[in-house]
Amino acid sequence: MPEPRAQQVRVDLPATRRRITRLHRYVESNLLSEGQFICPHFQQCRKSRRPGDAFREGIMSHVGRRFDLTLGGKPLRIVVVGQESGLPKGPSASTFGRRVTMETRYRQTLSGAGLERRYYAQDGYPGRNPHMRGTTTALRLLLGTGLGTDYDGEFVRPIKGRPFHLFDGFALVNRLLCSAGPPGGSQGRPTSTMAQNCDIHFAATLSILEPTIVILQGAKVAKWAAGVLAPARQQTDYLYQAIHDGRRVVVCSFSHPSAHGSVRWGDRPDAPYVAKVVAPTLQAALQLSGDS
């Protein structure tokens, strides 16, 4: 019987520390320095928002401290790409403020969305939103802990080192580092100007992270990512290979986990879209990335 994938994982902590240091340098030079948002496109993007919309600038990426993995001896670096960090409301508005550093974003994702929550609300813990439930499912499939909603199944037990939560083993990179949308709502309403101006930051982030597998969440994200991750070889409707900085990247393009109807997959791991699209696509992505 083959060894479970979760038991074939190795972690390269020094490689991730070096990678995070490089990304920090890029952020400090181009985006967020000493609490100031220094992106040269900031004012142009803010002025492009629709009348009455709020604007939230400078939400940096989450990079897990165990981002650099190998699975069965092959490199595995997972980047999940969302549209933007939603405009918060209620008590979370102060926590998820403007100009969020990489360190804060790491705590928000690993602790706030991961360790301090469960797939569904239980035992006094709040549940995750559909976006992060879908992300949990995708990571469980890629890292081999098995589909499910149990908290124990969210931990990877590598060959060496202590177990770690799934959210510490990937990067969450939003296609847009700023958000625009109606005040009091979480639904983003970005402009084409924002998407065009953020191209350079998205490309630079991918150049530093060097992902082997990228998961695009949503049709708009797929459209806006195409300029940086243009398909070089289409495998299926949901899977293609791209070349970025001379490196091959396997790209999975899914609906957003919180989408409506038959393409919604952030409510439960046995959703039809998971079984028919997400699971087989991720399995094929692992095979492709391992063949390089």
Q: How are the SSEs ordered, and which strands pair?
A:
Blueprint: E1 9-11, H1 13-30, E2 32-33, E3 36-37, H2 42-48, E4 54-56, E5 62-63, E6 69-71, E7 74-76, E8 78-82, H3 92-95, H4 102-115, H5 130-143, E9 155-156, E10 164-165, E11 171-174, E12 179-181, H6 192-197, H7 199-209, E13 213-217, H8 219-225, E14 231-236, E15 239-244, E16 247-254, H9 272-290
Parallel strand pairs: 8-11, 8-13, 13-16
Antiparallel strand pairs: 1-6, 2-3, 4-12, 5-11, 6-7, 9-10, 14-15, 15-16
Helix pairs in contact: 1-7, 5-9
Strand order of the largest sheet: 5-11-8-13-16-15-14
Strand content: 15-25%
* Pattern of helices and strands: EHEEHEEEEEHHHEEEEHHEHEEEH
Shape category: globular
Tally of individual helices: 9
Helix content: 25-40%
* Separation, N- and C-terminal Cα atoms: 25 Å
Q: State the major sheet.
A: 7 strands, mixed
Uncertain regions spanning at least 5 consecutive residues: 91-96
Gyration radius (Cα, Å) is 18 Å
Mean pLDDT: 93
**Record field, number of beta strands:** 16
Helix/strand class: alpha+beta
Explain what you see.
- It contains nine helices and 16 strands.
- The protein has helices at residues 13-30, 42-48, 92-95, 102-115, 130-143, 192-197, 199-209, 219-225, 272-290; strands at residues 9-11, 32-33, 36-37, 54-56, 62-63, 69-71, 74-76, 78-82, 155-156, 164-165, 171-174, 179-181, 213-217, 231-236, 239-244, 247-254.
- Strand 6 (69-71) and strand 7 (74-76) form a beta hairpin.
- The longest helix is centred in the C-terminal third of the chain and has 19 residues, at 272-290.
- The two termini are 25 Å apart.
